Amino acid sequence: MGLLIKNGTIVSSTAEYQADLLIEDEKIKEIAVNIPEGDHEVVDAAGKYIFPGGVDEHVHMGPFDSYGFETSHAALVGGTTTIVDFAPQDQGDTVINSFHRHKDEKAKGIASPDFSFHGMVMDTSEALLDEIPKMVENGIVNLKFFMAYNGTPFHVEDDLIFKAMQICKDYGITPWVHCENGDMIEVLKEEAVKNGVTKPIGHYLSSPPTVEDEAVQRLIYLAKLADCPVFIVHNTTEGACENIKRAQDQGQPVYGETCTHYLTIDTSFLEKENFEGAKWVCGPAIRPKEHLEAVWKAVKDGTLMGIGSDHAACVGGFEKAKKRGIDDFTKIPNGVPGMQDRLNMVWTQGVEKGRINRQDFVRLCMENPAKVCGIYPQKGALLPGSDADVLIWDPNYEGTISVENSYEGTDYNTFEGFPQKGIADKVFLRGHLMAERGKLVGEKGQGQYVKPQPYTVCYSNYHQKKAE
Ligand code: DUC
Ligand code: ZN
Ligand code: ZN
User: Is the pLDDT of residue 464 over 90?
Assistant: First the structure.
C-alpha cells in the first residue's frame, strides 16, 4: 500500500500538468494520469500545486552564534525538505575531520529535514591544499571561502583561494565564495565609528555595494586564471549580477545565488527606530531598493541560479544577541533567520507579483539548489525513483508572516508583517507527513544525511567547452 496524491497540478521547472503521484517505500513510484486507487491511502490535492520539497542550498546551523539543527524543523514547516549547511572547520583541524564531526555530532539524530553539507575553510594553513584530493570521497563537493570578515577565522586571503581553485577543478569540487572586500569594510567601519555613527545603518555604510561588486569581479578573474568553475553566494547588487552575466556571456563557468532577504528587505529596514534595524544586520548588508529589482531580474533571466535563505538565527535573537551592539553597530552579530519563510516570501513577492512564474519558483527554490549541491535528482525533483519529498501548495491561503508562527527559535521574524499568499498545505519528507498548514505534525530528528556527487551542474558547460 502506498500514498496516492490525486487531482493536483504537478509543477517542474519546465512544465505544469495534471497527474497523480504515487509514493511507495519513501520514493516516488509513479506519476501518471488516473492512477487507480487500489488499496492506497489517497490525498486529494484538487486546486493545489504539487512541487518537489524545497531545497535550501545555504543555511548556517551553528556558526555565527546561531541555533543549530534543533530548530531545523522550521524548514519543514515552510515546505523545505532538504537543507544544506556549511560545516565549519575547527581551528587546527582539517576541513574533512571537522565536517565529519559536525555531521555526526551536530546533525545526526537532531536534524528534522534531510541534510547535506558544504565544506567551509576556517583555518588558513596551506594544509588545506593537501586534503582537497580526499574531499569528494568524504562527501565534500563544494568548498566555501570568505573573502570578507578580516581579523576572524572566516577570512581567507586571495592567494589561498587561488591555489585551492587550481586543485578543486581536478576533482570536480566547486569553490563557493562570499565576495566582499574585507579590507575596505574594515577601513570604512573605522571611519564610520570615528565619525560618530553608532546605529545599525552604519553596517550598510561600511559595507556598500562597491565592496561586493569589486570582490565578485576579483573572484571572477581569479577563477579565470585558475580555470576553475565558481559559485558566488548571496549576490545582492546590480553590479555583482552584471559582473557575473558578463563572465557567463564570455563562456566562463561562473554561477551564483541570492537569498530571500536580498530580494525583499531594503535599507529602510536598517533605519528603523529604537535599534530595530539591528534585526536585519547581515553580511552582505541589505541594499537600497533599486538593487532588489536588479536581483529579481537576475533570478528571472537565469544569471543567478537559486534563492537560498542564508538562515543564521542568532541565539538570543534581538533582545539578547543583536542588542549587544546597541551603542556600537560593529558589535551587532551578523545574520537573519529565514529558512521557514523562504518559500512563502518568494511565492508571495515573486510569483504573486508576476516577477517570476511557477516554473521559475521550482527552478530557483528546488531544482537548481539540488543541482548545485550535487544531490539532484534524489532531491529537488518529482521523478520516479526520487525521494518522495513532496510539497502540496495551497495558493488560496492568505495571511501575514509573524514570529508567532515561527519555529526558528528567535524572538523576531525577519519578514514580520509581510503578507503571505499561499501556504505549504502538506509537506512530505520521504513520504512521511511532516507539516501541515504552518504546523509541525511529524516527529523531529528524523532527517537523513544525503551524500552529494561531485562535478555538479557548475561543471557541465565547463566540460563541454573543453571538449570543443
Ligand atoms: N553573513 C554570512 O556571511 N553568513 C551568515 C550570516 C551573515 O550575515
Ligand atoms: Zn556569506
Ligand atoms: Zn551564509
Answer: no
Place of cell 516570501: 345
**In whole numbers, what is the pLDDT of the chain averaged over residues?**
97
User: Distance between alpha carbon 296 and the CA centroid of its chain, in Å?
Assistant: 16
Nearest CA to ligand 1 atom 1: 283
Spatial contact of 78 and 340, defined as CB atoms under 8 Å apart: yes
Identify the pLDDT of residue 122: 95
Task: Report the half-sphere exposure of 181 (CA within 13 A, side-chain side).
Answer: 19
CA distance 436 to 423: 9
For the chain, the structural domain boundaries read 51-380+451-459
Contacts of 290 (CB under 8 A, 6+ apart): 238
Q: 3-state class of 79 per DSSP? A: coil
Could you give the CA distance from residue 184 to residue 175 in angstroms, rounded to a whole number? 23
175 lines ligand 1 (CB under 6 A): no
Who surrounds ion ligand 3 at CB < 5 A? 310
Residue among 368, 434, 382 nearest 79 (CA): 434
Residue 178 beta carbon below 6 angstroms from any ligand 1 atom: yes
Max CA pair span of the chain: 74
User: Is the separation of the CB atoms in 117 and 103 below 8 Å?
Assistant: yes
Phi, psi of 297 (to 5 degrees): -60, -40
List the one residue out of 458, 460, 404, 397 whose CA is nearest residue 424: 397
C-alpha cell at 376: 539532484
Pairing relationship of beta strands 390-400 and 306-308 according to DSSP bridges: unpaired
The answer to whether the CB of 312 is under 6 A from ligand 1 is yes
Distance from residue 385's CA to the centre of ligand 2 (Å): 34
* Predicted local confidence at residue 135, as pLDDT: 98
Q: What is the pLDDT of residues 62-109, one digit of tens each?
A: 877 899 999 999 999 999 999 999 999 999 999 999 999 999 999 999
Name the CATH topology of 51-380+451-459.
Answer: TIM Barrel (3.20.20)
What SS3 class is residue 254? strand
Q: In this predicted structure, what is the pLDDT of residue 124?
A: 85
Cα Rg for the chain, rounded, in angstroms? 21
DSSP string, 228-257: --EEE----SHHHHHHHHHHHHTT--EEEE
- Ligand 2 centroid–CA 74 distance in Å is 21
Percent with pLDDT over 90 in the chain: 97
Ligand 2 centroid – CA 147 distance (Å) = 9
For the Cβ of 179 lying below 6 angstroms from any atom of ligand 1, the answer is no
Helices (H), 105-178: 127-131, 135-138, 158-168
Q: Is the CB of 334 under 6 A from ligand 1?
A: yes
Is residue 130 a contact partner of residue 140, using CB atoms and an 8 Å limit?
Answer: no
CA atoms lying within 13 Å on the CB side of residue 98: 22
Let me know: does 153 contact 121? Beta carbons within 8 Å.
Answer: no
